Amino acid sequence: MTVPGYIRTAPRLKARRAAALPDRIARSAAAPAGESADEIRQWIGRRRAQASFAVDRIPFEALEDWSFAPETGNLAHRSGRFFTVEGLHAAIGEHPERTEWHQPVIVQSEVGILGILAREFDGVLHFLMQAKMEPGNPGLLQLSPTVQATYSNYTKVHKGVAVRYLEYFTDPSRGRVLADVLQSEHGAWFHRKRNRNMIVETSGPVPEHEDFRWLTLRQIHQLLRHDNTVNMDARSVLAALPVRGAPHALHSDTELLSWLALHRAAIPIRSERIPLAGVAGWTRGASSIDHDDDRYFRTVAVSVRASNREVGHWTQPLIEPRGQGVVAFVTRTFAGVPHVLARARAEGGSTEVELGPTVQCQPRSHAHLPVAERPPFLDLVTTAPPSRVRYSALHSEEGGRFLNSVSRYLVVAADEGDAPLDAPPGFCWVSRDQLAALTRYSHYVNVQARTLLLCLNSLDDYA
Amino acid sequence: MTVPGYIRTAPRLKARRAAALPDRIARSAAAPAGESADEIRQWIGRRRAQASFAVDRIPFEALEDWSFAPETGNLAHRSGRFFTVEGLHAAIGEHPERTEWHQPVIVQSEVGILGILAREFDGVLHFLMQAKMEPGNPGLLQLSPTVQATYSNYTKVHKGVAVRYLEYFTDPSRGRVLADVLQSEHGAWFHRKRNRNMIVETSGPVPEHEDFRWLTLRQIHQLLRHDNTVNMDARSVLAALPVRGAPHALHSDTELLSWLALHRAAIPIRSERIPLAGVAGWTRGASSIDHDDDRYFRTVAVSVRASNREVGHWTQPLIEPRGQGVVAFVTRTFAGVPHVLARARAEGGSTEVELGPTVQCQPRSHAHLPVAERPPFLDLVTTAPPSRVRYSALHSEEGGRFLNSVSRYLVVAADEGDAPLDAPPGFCWVSRDQLAALTRYSHYVNVQARTLLLCLNSLDDYA
Question: Tens digit of pLDDT for each residue in B339-370?
């Protein structure tokens, strides 16, 4: 077509997919052993010892700058930023399957950045990981992304020091983006929360800092075998690394997306925020908000003192689950291709049904139910013989919002008797590579499934 | 790995992508001419004449089974189903860019099915299209999907007759799914509305009906050249047909997703439903709810009489825009690959920022603004010389919810002077095939951009 006045410019086009990247990632996962996991854990321990940290439970009235609003009872910071604890009227599904309940919920509509900086050393991709304190973490310090910045952080609402290395994630000219997607977080505790998960590769020199270390993917995979060592944000971001995908699976990609669309249509999430004071079935005490039957979680407050964080002292609310969780994928390998049994998961605070683990629950909160109503496959994964357990470790959720929120993460091999090819309603066999491909898009793979995906990827080293 | 008790089953895996499908779709788009567009339009005209339709504006008090709730002022059906007209406190973006306003909004959290049945005849894919009346459509009857069923429809809340051909979309064993995704609809008028867009191919015999016809994609493309002929639901569903994708583009897929993630993080949508009675700046009269400066849209009520629909008579509210819209993609071809200038679009009722057209506005509602604040590229697309206008037709939005909601849809070729390679803030050059690939996922390509994508695809016939 000839257009009058058309200036012929010939920009260079780019390949839509970076074909070499999965191989580079595989090389990093198979890199020669450098420092061992124990040595890296010792470094985290030294960082913990060199700074002085103290996290103490306090009554709500000792919170500084946080208070319950007189009209709504919502717990908010005086700046109006960070997050609030409000009420949720959760409603899921269509009549007659519709279920409804009330609960407290964390509202944080700001989108933060969880960013990991990558760089090649001697031809092998390394990732700049941080030993970072979060008040709710077991052990306080865990291996974290290079940058964990709320919008308040990087707009300096809390008047702290600048976030180190943030410029790599806010200025695209400083590197090459390997992955970048808004990912949902815990729909059971957050109202529509999501963070921007980024991996950026740089080729230039990067200033060093004693709280940060360059690790290969192999080292990170080895650290994942240890309890409460790699934090949730790091697990979520690393799950977005592209893998070489097997082109075949039990179901085509279209069939998988169709199965998800069916569940999204059948189980719409219609939850609404309500005042925290109006939440039925929960009671606010001097130092906690509790479920009247002691189930699910409580809302508490802590005082934090730290010498090496952006600010040295603060107080904040945290959500504390009542008991340890179980999060598991049941796996089978079909014609050489590893698959997981994913579940279509609707949570009160989520936007849409997402793909979740086979099992994701807090057994203590289900103990009062008749056996038939307990989560499917829970017994299978918690009583599997050791020969079936391909992965098992404890991991905690975001230590900036959750106190001692620990779950046992499991990958359990099954057979036709335990987990038939013809999956039960609400479940679908998804190849590991299909799951990985969906992490490029928002609201497809939930945060617990992303941790398990990273665990699955780590198993390749041990195959 | 050997697992005790493991039963070796060898299921056949499937190719994750249906490699042959884009070619089959291209064949349907290039099929030998059958009935002409004029002949098909005459058939629609005969269907219009043979049924007797009447749509009349009525005052709100003449609505049957619909009423304003005493406490909230929300307009709702007595069954609690279908949809409601409520208030929206829209809030978009972060301080200091945050903007807020009040407006009425349609709330419909049910997810309906928009389904098109496909079948090969003589080796060419055909699509079963319906001549369907919707009260808000200009001309009342338009070419529509095989099935347009709200959840209320197919659970029979309105006690009407069964939805014809619905079984192909609810029973997977009856065909093969070619596309299936929940797609968002107009974020300016709906609160988080989405429908399930499905294309299902069958190989068996399909009963005929006088309101339905099998058309090739070529015939549908030709009908798209005519004003107000192919309805919004059909356009949205057909945009999901997979195309052969050029493997190169100005930006890699990761760069494009990263650009979108940046805008999603910077412009969170924090809108909340409020009572319709509490909407500031709008006034409810006897037969309409109007903006106090006569901008944007009004809410009205109609009475409908029809002899060939699921029910013969009903009344309902509709949203009526104030004036014709302009929806346009500015296009350029780089190294042989067609690109569109997409805009990151945040709308009050949407879940996330989505990719939208270069221009999407109602000029009348912007006429009071200084020139510098009017939509970018609006002048370019409305004053382009005919040689630059590759596509131009009027299309209306969903006639079941919107009354005479007509926009001029345009595809306008541009050059470096009009639309530089270095896109202005908020805009990004996206290849047509990148846009098409994103229609597989929810909340990525908005409804107006999906119509334009189908229009772009239709241009291949004329290249």
Answer: 999 999 999 999 999 999 999 999 998 888 88
Q: Give the tens place of pLDDT for each residue, A341-377.
A: 999 999 999 999 999 999 999 999 888 888 888 899 9
**Does A97 reach chain B within 8 Å, measured CB to CB?**
no
**Taking 70 as the threshold, does the pLDDT of residue A227 lie above it?**
yes
- What pLDDT does A337 receive? 95
Q: Residue A10 is nearest to which of B179, B249, B335, comparing CB atoms?
A: B335
Q: In which element (H, E) is residue B452 found?
A: helix B447-459
Please choose, from the candidates A266, A288, A295, the residue with its C-alpha nearest in 3D space to the C-alpha of residue A188: A295
Contact between residue B59 and residue B288 where contact means Cβ atoms under 8 Å apart? no
CA A111-A117-A120 angle, to 5 degrees, is 160
Taking only residues 288 to 327 of chain B, the set having a beta carbon closer than 8 angstroms to any beta carbon of chain A reads none
Strands A282-284 and A113-121 come out as unpaired
Say how far apart CA B394 and CA A71 lie, in whole Å: 50
pTM recorded for the entire structure: 0.95
Q: What do you get for the CA distance between the two ends of chain B, in Å?
A: 56
Contact across the interface for A415 and B10, Cβ inside 8 Å: no
B151 at interface of A, judged by CB pairs closer than 8 A:
yes
**Residue A365 pLDDT:** 87
Test the A interface: residue of B6, B16, B429, B444 with most A CBs within 10 Å: B16
Q: What is the pLDDT of residues A278-313, one digit of tens each?
A: 999 999 999 999 999 999 999 999 999 977 655 589
> C-alpha distances in angstroms, A136 versus A30, A119, A310?
33, 30, 17
Domains of chain A: 253-270+323-462 (3.90.79.40)
- pLDDT of B167 higher than 60: yes
pLDDT in tens, A396-414: 999 999 999 999 999 999 9
Cα separations in angstroms, A333 against A254, A339, A439, B3, B370: 20, 6, 21, 12, 63
Q: Rounded to whole angstroms, what are the CA distances from A144 to A115, A220, A233, A395?
A: 9, 11, 7, 13
Q: In this complex, is the C-beta atom of B387 within 8 Å of any C-beta atom belonging to chain A?
A: yes
Alpha-carbon distance B194 to B190, whole Å?
Answer: 9
Q: Where are the beta strands (DSSP E) in B188-243?
A: 190-191, 194-201, 212-216
- Cα–Cα distance measured from residue B290 to residue B285, given in angstroms and rounded to the nearest whole number: 8
Q: Is the dihedral of CA B299, B305, B310, B315 positive or negative?
A: positive
